[in-house]
Each structure stands twice: as structure tokens, then as C-alpha cells.
Amino acid sequence: SHKPNTAVPQAFYNRQAGIKRITTETGAGQWGCSMAFAGQMFGLDVRVYMVKVSYQQKPFRRSMMQTWGAEVFASPSSMTQSGRDLLASDPDNQGSLGIAISEAVEEAAGRADTSYALGSVLNHVALHQTIIGQEAKKQFAKIGDWPDVIFAPCGGGSSFAGVAFPFIADNAAGGRNGRPTQLVAVEPTSCPSLTRGAYAYDFGDASGFTPLMKMYTLGHDFMPPGIHAGGLRYHGDSPLVSQLYHEGLIEAVAVSQLATFEAGVMFSRAEGIIPAPESNHALRAAIDEALRCKLSGEAKTIFVNLTGHGHFDMAAYDRYFAAELEDFDYPAEAIRASLEHLPKVG
């Protein structure tokens, strides 16, 4: 996936600072694999708290992390106080990225030789990922074209920020050829932080260990359903992405799980690449845009950020082919209940 773009520099700078161990979280496992790989490169021990539902759904990503020397635990776990508290209240808790972040931060805070590394959301991660958009601009320049619209999946926001941020300045100057590029973040209807969340200060984790960040959020104790796009099961969004959305400089849409897998299969049969469930969200929105253009006769250059392959997600595709997957639009009353627990600021 795109995650080594930030895992490698984070491991490098931690090694330079004398850090010996890294703790981190992972959802679907792409970030955990990348951090395990980067830690191995620079001689760092890595411990990964993997969201329990993804730990069960994606065993081969767990195997990849272990192959590169990382320890992997299903989260919530009995390794931390926050994990033990959650398991005491609900032994069947399927986990979330916010919970896994809490466990990783709690452990790192208790050891001087350990740093916590985050794979999305934060400014430095967005910065590292802008290599995607920087390279894309050079590629478009080579072929004498420019995107009318860009679609990227959006959970914490790193892949969207990576592809979209380098186009922001061009849009501010009026865009290329007198037209700005539409920048569209695509999220699941089951975890709609941008499209249905509140723009407010909230914690980045479930237990309140992180600093408060102003972002679009569904509430730090929001528990998303166990969709197969584990990398998009996060309650909030990057503060930078959130501010741009609040200012109307980017757009967001939400798509349902079944439609995304339909798009992934369509793309696979056309291009020969099996995409990750997260990437399928961007593909769904791009296909819908192409179909609208087909009806209207409008010509558009559509650019999709394909963030990872789905070779370790075939169990999810199996369930799609067996008609065992379901759509889930998160109930409005459940979102309201979660937002009632936002921190009181000011």
C-alpha cells in the first residue's frame, strides 16, 4: 500500500533519536505491515495492536507483520489497562482504530525507550504522503493532461491528503486551464465522519490519551460496524483534511459496502488489479462519475488514488461472491448519542 511512504521516515527519525521500540495500531493491516517492515530496516522492535475484527478477518496481514519481526495483538487486549477495561465491560468487543490507538499510546507513554507511531491523521503523515500527488502532477505534465476530478478513499485522511494536497495551491490560483480540480474524499456510509460527523474538538483515540484535535468526528467512543475496509473504520479525520472540508475547498461522499465490492470486481476484470476494500471506495465514486459523464456526454479526466492491492482481502471478496456481505448505514440516533460524549471545550 501507500503506507511505507510515512513508515520508513518515522522509523528512521525514531532510530536517529535513540528510540528502541515502536508501538502502533493497525486496522486492515496495511499500516502495521509497513511499520513492521520499516522497523526491521532500522533495527527497531515493533508492537502492533490490530483491531480485533480485522485481526480475525485478515490473518495473512498478521503473518506479514510477524515475518518482519513485529509482535501483533488483537485489540482490545489484556496488555493494557484501557484494553482490560473495555474487555471487562464487553468481552466480545470487536475493536476500533480509536481503541487500538489508545492501547499503543498507553504503552508508549509508560516506557522511555518507546515511541508511538501513527499511520494517518497527523500533519507529518499527510506531508510524507504528498509524494503521491507530487508524482502524479509530474506524470500528468508528461502526457499533457490534467485531472478534472480526483477520488481517494478517506478514513483518517492520509491517502486522500497525499494525493489531493499538492493540487490545493493550483486550485487556489484558479486551476490549470482555468478550471480547478475537484478533490473528493470517499468514505463508507457505515463510518461517515466527514459527511455526517460534527466539526469539533475531540480525542484521536477512544480513551482520551491523545491531545484534542479539531476535526470532523463521530465521537471518540463511536463503534463502527465490522466492515471489511478496516482502514476506514476511524471515528475522526485529519485536522488538515477537516479544515479544508469545512472551508469548502474539498468535497466528500459516502458509499455503501456492496457497491464498493461491485466496483472492485469491475476494476479487476478491466485492469487485472485486485484492489483493497479501502481503494474500492474511491473506485466506486470514480465509476459513478464516469457513468454520469457517459449519460451527459461530458468529457472528464478522472484520477483515482488506488491505495493498495487486495491479495490478502480475498476472504472479503469470497463473502461478496457468496452474498454474505451487508450494507450498513449508521443510524442517526447512534451518531447523536456518540456525539453527546464530545469533550467540553471553551
TrEMBL record:
Q: Which residues form a coiled coil?
A: none
Q: Which residues cross the membrane?
A: none
Keyword terms: Amino-acid biosynthesis, Aromatic amino acid biosynthesis, Lyase, Pyridoxal phosphate, Tryptophan biosynthesis
MF terms from GO for this chain are: L-serine hydro-lyase (adding indole, L-tryptophan-forming) activity; tryptophan synthase activity
Obligatory cofactor(s): pyridoxal 5'-phosphate
The answer to keyword Cell division applying to this record is no
Pathway this chain belongs to: Amino-acid biosynthesis; L-tryptophan biosynthesis; L-tryptophan from chorismate: step 5/5
Q: Which residues form the Tryptophan synthase beta chain-like PALP domain?
A: 1-308
Domain of life (superkingdom):
Bacteria
Catalytic activities: (1S,2R)-1-C-(indol-3-yl)glycerol 3-phosphate + L-serine = D-glyceraldehyde 3-phosphate + L-tryptophan + H2O
Q: Which GO terms describe its cellular component?
A: cytoplasm
Per the UniProt entry, the Enzyme Commission number(s) are 4.2.1.20
Enzyme class name? lyase
Q: Which InterPro entries match?
A: Trp_synth_beta/beta-like, TrpB-like_PALP, TrpB-like_PALP_sf
What interactions and quaternary structure are annotated? Tetramer of two alpha and two beta chains.
Query: Family, per the entry?
Result: Belongs to the TrpB family.
Protein name per Swiss-Prot or TrEMBL = tryptophan synthase
| Native organism | Candidatus Accumulibacter phosphatis
Q: What is the lineage of its organism?
A: Bacteria, Pseudomonadati, Pseudomonadota, Betaproteobacteria, Candidatus Accumulibacter
